[in-house]
UniProtKB/TrEMBL annotation:
SUPFAM superfamilies: L domain-like, P-loop containing nucleoside triphosphate hydrolases. Keywords: Leucine-rich repeat, Nucleotide-binding, Plant defense, Repeat. InterPro entries: Apaf_helical (IPR042197), Disease_R_plants (IPR044974), LRR_dom_sf (IPR032675), LRR_R13L4/SHOC2-like (IPR055414), NB-ARC (IPR002182), P-loop_NTPase (IPR027417), RX-like_CC (IPR038005), Rx_N (IPR041118). Pfam families: LRR_14 (PF23598), NB-ARC (PF00931), Rx_N (PF18052), WHD_DRP (PF23559). It comes from Rhynchospora tenuis. This is Uncharacterized protein. It comes from the Eukaryota. One of its GO terms (molecular function) is ADP binding.
């Protein structure tokens, strides 16, 4: 990890703002010297850390001292940049420096003298460390190790693995899946039954449970299915609320009930009653994955109705006592180890994800079998080692060297843990901080990728490259971690990129262990938690419990704070804080505290609460917040939520040139002022169009990629077209039109036409025309839509003609949503071969009477969602759509219900999951 810390320190010294500021203050020479010394030391660190367990105390001490110096460099630079901001009274650093240079020598400023002294001391310490490598023979030892384990030539990543409903990496579970499904569906025991899967970590218990949970037979038989991931420190209120949320969305009162710790007993009783009432008349399946304590079943068994309808609870656990206590009448299903042949197959699938392994087996001799034995036939270990091998040339010598690094005896009980540690040690320096970052999330947490990537960028983990954005580079890092089997993909977007991921329990434990060893991250789960490292050197803290005084756990060097609690004091002590982020339940710190945090780069997922008291106070605090945020001159991500009140909003926040992502979930939030210059802005979500843009011009956002505009007034065509001509990177556009009349926009002339992936257009189109709009005078034109569109949503468009014959020609379209049109065409028709890539279709609030699809149309459709079309009486011959998995039909004409439960029931027999 020391190598990764040095890597981050070098990234810090290479940041454009830091480099320019240091040179303007006369510290350029020291900057170059520091970079030279760090690069020299970094050359030895990777192999030193890989052998840390085998090296003597001299080398371990040397590695630890290098890490501390790297941390000190980061602290000195951050403190200096904060001092510069204070000295310049929160104004632009460079412009003020130029004024200073006209009058006196900046080298005489106190902040410069302080910086010079600190950097001199660091250079002296680096020279001492360098001398120690010779004095204590560490240099020779590391050089010998360097020659004996030289870097092997890497194979490039061949591509991005696309999402696959049937995981191709699963081997040997088909029979087990059938056995579990049989136990779940067996009606010889009609009363509620608990089926348990037991086995050690890494055997595939969760994978087996998921395959049973998603099987077509189970989807058809159970009216309610809920998946729960149970952590070691579970709370009953969380289990109950998650179960209820898996059945129906929680309303705002229920969410507020969860936020208040004082209401927990009352909340438990409430959620227990709600659950029992909902489940009493239904056949349900509840999955409780990764249960660690027998107490859980004692607390929930009375909540889950014990009816005679074949309801089931499936528990996965490592502890046989839990399985026996849950249901002594049903023997637990014990996971088996893979056979040598199955192990070899799984290893090779991960080692050659984009190639045929048969072409290389002759040259590898018996190495695949040796790897299988070394991994103890554990699926998780085999996937990780296979991911490691995928980065090497498929030759006997390169694979044999990897096998030699797995230096434990076959059959060692700790071999899975050893494999994880070895895989981490072999991970490149640039990926180690990214991997350890997963430790901050709660156990079994589904991690949303967009915020994660923005956090990596804000932390400085991602280098700047001329040809790619840092966010694109971060996605590459994420895919590499997936290929190495260090993280698991939960869901991908329609364009193939990752949307949600998770970390296996064992790998999360490894991330926590490495984070603790290196003072990288502190997790505060309960009051009274202690930290094994020095609180003064902790860099990041994740607070998962109510913690009034964060300073008792951390120190002034804290850089990132993640929390989900209400009351924390002394946050203002962290003047150099870069990340302040809520995780689940979140509130906003006081504006007086925020005003001092000028170094913040990520301020995210916060909610204003003052509206609950009095309106005058709310107005005052909202203005104070905006002014406080405007002092954050390094801010990259701003993510706030609010309510439908026209709060005052000063324009000063748009003076922050470093902004990359602005997500404001609040009604009437105005976009940037006319002609604002936001050169780094990539995401701007849910902002209201300013009328002044029509006259004075649109803001300059040359790198905008995701744009959401609401309440789009009439008369904006020319100015909007001019803006789109200057937005070549736009991939997602959300526009809600308002007013009349409006002319259609032909998108062929815009530079984003060939690569836009997502388009949402809304507004009353019967009075005007816009992107794709139609009325009784003009027809829809396929060229109005971007040619490679993946997602399309059309809202409140009163079609006078059937739009399907045009939209079905979008060959790459995978998701289509038509909403809120009570005067649209009464019939929608799709031809054979239409919508060749469509997977998801939603029809909501339409005056539709009949929907037709010719045989061969929509061949890949997986999900149909029709929640409110009260006049609908006829649907297509769905039996021809063999890929269909989910069909939801609510609030349609009663004649359609009668047909589908009677003479037309044949249309639905092949669909695994139907929701009426």
């Amino acid at each position: 990890m020391a190598e990764a810390i040095v890597h981050l320190a070098l990234n810090k010294l290479a940041e454009a703002a830091v480099t320019e500021t240091l040179r303007l203050y006369g510290a350029g020479g020291q900057l170059n010297s520091l970079q030279h010394e760090l690069r020299w030391i970094q050359a030895f660190l990777k192999d030193a850390e890989a052998k840390t367990n085998n090296l003597d105390e001299r080398a371990k001490t040397w590695v630890s001292e290098v890490r501390e110096v790297a941390y000190r460099i980061e602290d000195v630079i951050d403190t200096f940049m904060a001092d510069v901001d204070d000295h310049n009274n929160q104004q632009g650093v460079i412009s003020v420096l130029k004024k200073i240079l006209r009058f006196f020598n900046p080298n005489k400023l106190p902040i410069v003298l302080k910086l010079t002294n600190e950097m001199d001391a660091i250079q002296t310490r680096l020279r001492e460390i360098k001398e120690c490598t010779e004095k204590y023979c560490i240099n020779r030892e590391l050089k010998e190790d360097l020659s004996s384990s030289a870097m092997l030539q890497r194979r490039p990543i061949r591509g991005v693995m696309l999402p696959d409903e049937d995981d191709p990496d699963v081997v040997g579970l088909e029979t087990d899946k059938e056995n579990i499904v049989r136990l779940l569906l067996d009606l010889n025991t009609p009363r509620r039954r608990v089926v348990s899967i037991i086995g050690q970590g890494g055997l595939g218990k969760t994978t087996l449970a998921k395959r049973a949970y998603n099987s077509d037979k189970v989807k058809r038989e159970f009216e309610i299915r809920v998946w729960l991931s149970i952590s070691k420190q579970f709370e009953l209120i969380n289990v109950l609320s998650m179960t209820l949320e898996g059945i129906r969305p929680l309303d705002r009162n229920e969410k507020d009930l969860l936020k208040d710790p004082k209401s927990q007993p009352r909340a438990e009783q409430y959620f227990a009653r709600q659950l029992n009432s909902l489940l009493k008349q239904k056949r349900y399946l509840i999955i409780m994955d990764d249960v660690w304590t027998p107490d859980l079943w004692d607390k929930v068994k009375d909540v889950l109705p014990d009816t005679k309808n074949g309801s089931r609870v499936l528990v996965t656990t490592r502890i046989s006592e839990i399985a026996t206590k849950a249901d002594s009448t049903c023997d637990p299903y014990a996971m088996r180890y893979l056979s040598v042949e199955e192990s070899q197959t799984l290893l090779l699938r991960n080692a050659f994800p984009f190639q045929d392994p048969e072409a290389y087996l002759d040259g590898l001799s018996d190495l695949p079998q040796k790897f299988a034995r070394k991994c103890g036939n554990l699926p998780l270990a085999l996937k990780i080692v296979g991911g490691r091998l995928s980065r090497e040339l498929p030759t006997y010598n390169s694979w044999h060297k990897i096998l030699q690094k797995l230096n434990w005896h076959d059959g060692d009980e700790q071999n899975c843990t050893n494999i994880l540690a070895t895989s981490y040690e072999d991970t490149p320096a640039y990926l180690k901080p990214c991997f350890m970052y997963f430790a901050l999330y709660p156990e079994d947490y589904q991690i949303k990728i967009k915020p994660l990537i923005r956090l990596w960028v804000s932390e400085g983990f991602i280098p700047e490259r001329n040809s790619r954005t840092m966010e694109e580079t971060a996605e590459d890092y994420l895919e590499e971690l997936v290929q190495r089997s260090m993280i698991q993909v939960v869901r991908r977007k329609f364009n193939g990129s990752i949307k949600y991921c998770r970390v296996h329990d064992l790998l999360r434990e490894l991330a926590i262990q490495k984070a603790e060893e290196n003072n990288f991250l502190q997790i505060i789960s309960n009051q009274g938690d202690t930290w094994c490292g020095s609180s003064t050197t902790v860099r990041r803290a994740a607070v998962h419990s109510n913690c009034e005084d964060i300073m008792q756990y951390t120190g002034p060097n804290l850089r990132s704070l993640f929390y989900s609690v209400y009351n924390m004091r002394n946050i203002e002590s962290f003047r150099s804080l870069k990340i302040l982020c809520g995780i689940e339940y979140y509130v906003t710190p006081h504006s007086k505290i925020l005003k001092k945090m000028t170094q913040l780069r990520y301020f995210g997922k916060f909610e204003f609460e003052y509206w609950k008291s009095d309106m005058k106070k709310a107005r005052y605090h909202r203005i104070s917040y905006w002014k406080s945020i405007s002092h954050m001159k390094n801010l990259q991500t701003l993510h706030l939520t609010g309510f439908g009140i026209d709060w005052p909003q000063p324009d000063c926040i748009w003076d922050i040139k470093t902004l990359r992502h602005v997500i404001i979930k609040q009604a009437d939030f105005l976009g940037p002022p006319p002609k604002s210059d936001l050169p780094n802005l990539q995401t701007l979500k849910r902002v209201k169009v300013r009328e002044s843009w029509l006259v004075e011009g649109w803001p300059k956002m040359p790198n905008i990629r995701v744009l959401e505009l609401i309440l789009f007034p009439p008369g904006y065509k020319e100015s909007f077209c001019n803006f789109l001509m200057e937005a070549p990177h736009l991939i997602s556009l959300y526009v809600y039109f308002f007013g009349a009349p409006y002319e259609r926009l032909d998108m062929r002339s815009f530079p984003s036409y060939n690569h836009m992936q997502s388009l949402y257009v809304g507004g009353k189109w019967n009075n005007f025309e816009c992107i794709g709009g139609v009325n009784q005078y003009k027809t829809l034109d396929i060229h109005l839509f971007p040619i490679h569109l993946i997602k399309l949503c059309i809202d409140e468009s009163d079609f006078q003609e059937d739009p399907m014959p045009i939209i079905e020609k979008l060959k790459n379209l995978r998701k289509l949503t038509l909403l809120n049109s009570q005067q649209c065409q009464k019939q929608l028709s799709c031809s054979a071969g239409g919508f060749p890539s469509l997977e998801y279709l939603k029809l909501y609030g339409l005056s539709l009477v009949e929907w037709k699809v010719e045989k061969g149309g929509m061949p890949l459709l997986k999900e149909i969602y029709i929640p409110y079309c009260p006049n609908l009486v006829a649907i297509p011959e769905l039996q021809h759509m063999t890929s269909l998995k989910t069909f939801t039909l609510k609030d349609v004409h009663e004649d359609l219900y009668e047909k589908l439960t009677g003479e037309e029931s044949y249309k639905l027999k092949h669909i695994p999951y139907i929701d009426w």
